[in-house]
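Encode chain A's predicted structure.
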Amino acid sequence: MDHCIIHALRIDGRAPFSRIAEVLGVSTQTVARRYGRLSSELSLRVVGVVNPRQPSAGKWILRLTASPNTAQNVAQSLARRDDTAWVRLMSGGTEICFVMNSAAHHTLLFREIPRVASIAEVSAHRLLHTYLGGPTAWQGHTAALTDGQQEQLRRTCDAVDTADEPKFRASLPQADWHLLAALQRNGRISYTDLAAETGQSSSTITRRLAALQAGGMLTFDVEISAEVYGVTTQALLWMSVAPSHLNQVANTLIQHKELAFLASTTGPTNLVALVLCRTPSELHEYLAHRLSALDSIRMLETSPVQRTLKTCSPFLQSAQHPQV
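Encoded structure for chain A:
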């Protein structure tokens, strides 16, 4: 039942408990009670994800190597920034890997990082194309509901008025950015609370939210403790693939149930993936058998994830569980 609720929220992050209950054939109180427990015990969060449609809105993956006694503090500082996402401690706790947008990474690389004496190495990799990623990327998150239940949720979710769909420019009205910021902190915040935070009426909020979703500016993701799915072992895989076989290898990899993210990058490697496994032995089997069958992968570096400090949502100091 918990997995069904999480799957439903991945289809529609703001679906009312009553609609989820109807699809699952249980009471609204049951859904509300289980959602509350998942939130308090396993750090379940529904968050808004902003997707600005601008050529300059590209992203970079940065890798830093810091001294063992300072890496944790550096990672915490990066996680608190508004312009970072997916901040992870890697490889025994001395490597930090995170995502940053193009507009901010220059300042960090050339002004701020050089002032930190404990940072020994830095590399930056531009994300060129995402093959796998987003709210429903990992198959483990979306295996609980039947096809009929998923279709029932999507029909209701898609039934929105797109007449007010915005034509996105380099910037949105300030009122929309206030709305998006509130949804990034809490994707299920009520319309009444959104109206109080943004100073707009509930009817305006409802219309703008539907328009932002219809235009692709806003999506919703679900953050949840990895232990819900039995995941104890995560790693980033940095792969070098012959350019002529890049798309072929990527299209094969996105079928692997172990992968939650896959993108092409700049740098000495040209593919990066996030792999989720139940045990180190399962990761070994994946590397030794499934990946080894792909001859076009010429080089592979495996970076174990020690801890995830921040995912796609704003940093919350109270978050204590590793998330996927």
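The mean pLDDT is 85.
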